[in-house]
Amino acid sequence: MSAQTIMDDYLLQALEQGEICLWQQDYTGKLMEIWKQDSTVSMFAHDGMSFAMGIDEFLKEYCSPDEVDLITMRLEYAFASETPFHMEHQIYSRKRHSWLWVDSFGVTRSLRDGSKRFYGVMHNIDARKRYERTLGGQDSAMERVRLMLDAMPLSCTFWGEGETPVDCNQEAVRLLDLSSKQE
Q: H-helix or E-strand containing 133?
């Protein structure tokens, strides 16, 4: 087996495990091509491991209407300035019938014939976004617990390791004759 074949296999495994699909865009022809891996098939409704469609059609079919103008503006700017395109946005998975978060990154490359193309990757980050929303919900839940703790008429102190006080409510501050919770 050649070194190139081994590297190709490693690349395919990395794309699969990372839920990453590859894309390229012929900006002058407004054509977008996408290559999928088994793990990213559910992101798109098209059969097969690759498909091509017009960029406007792709934006209309897969991207959130609220984000299409921003995505278009960023793509046009990146292409004109030859700077990288990067954006977290949502696409609609017709196979899952739900919106998925993806992280898209692309760079402009000039070809030998003088034309330019975007080459990029689209990474499924939906699980990470769901986790971040869960953590955000935990932060607000902890804030509600703190508010309820402070409103309690009984003294309450939370202790950490080594019998160190971590937090208390206002009643504990008053009972212990402290000037503040931080004290």
A: helix 126-151
